[in-house]
Each structure stands twice: as structure tokens, then as C-alpha cells.
Amino acid sequence: MWFAGPSPRHPRGFRLKAAPWWRHCASAVSCLLLAQLSAPSALRAQEVIVHPGVGVTTITTNEARLYLTLRLKTWPNGEPVKVFVLPDDDPLHRRFANTVLGLFPYQLRRVWDRQLFSGTGQVPTAVASESEMLRRVATTPGAIGYVESVPAGAPVRPLEVR
Question: Which of 10, 26, 73, 112 has the largest count of CB atoms under 10 Å?
């Protein structure tokens, strides 16, 4: 970025000078913020859904990670947690793991496999599609899962992750 400034050496009184470094940084930061704010909501976050009988309405990101890695095995009311996930190669599963849980899908798989092979836990139930996810979470007490967005009138309850 260049700007004109007065110069006693130039015949017309002006010369071009390079902008200070901080102006470049400020431009880059403002562009990144604008891009983040204008990004479609589908790319930012997905909806965590639970069975309507689960008494929890909000959880932290850490609690979401603990429930979906099967480290927390019961809800606060003592009901067992049943986790449903999409296949590892599903684009929604990848985005959900990255944006909501802050993990890569292979990290989730490692946690689940370690629990299965050590005999200390189970792996989540894999479903083939979002519609099956909605159906299984709605009919399984204590269930948790995720979808792109909750359709109107769905028999599940969205869970806010803070």
C-alpha cells in the first residue's frame, strides 16, 4: 500500500512512500473479520440434538467433548448416554468434530478405539444419514447426536453448546 506525502526534494512537492506495517495488519484483520461474519451459518456450526427426555439444556464445549467421546457415561439425572454419529468420512461429521468439539475425526476415532480395545468402553452407534440420526435420537432415551440444522417440528431437542 502506498500513499502520497509531501517531499521537499520532489519537483512537484510530493513523493510516494510505503505505508507503515501496521496498516497492512489492520487491513488483513478487518478482511478476516468481515469474511467470518459473512460466512454461511452452515459452515460455522451444527446443531447438537438430544432426546426430549434429557434434562440438560446447555453444555460447555468440554462437556460436549466428554459426552461424545463417551468419557461421561451418564446424564446428571443418572440416565445413560447413548451417542449416535455419522460415518468418519461424512462431511458433516468432519465439520462437527472440528467446529463444535475442536477435534479432528481421526482423534475421535482413536479415543473410541482405545476404549473399545482396552475393554473400558463402547463405540458410538454409527448411522447412515441425518434423517436416521433424527429418528434414532428421538426414539432412544438419553441419546445425543448432531445434524446440520433441526427441522421444524422435529421430535428432538437442540442442545446449546457454549
Answer: 112
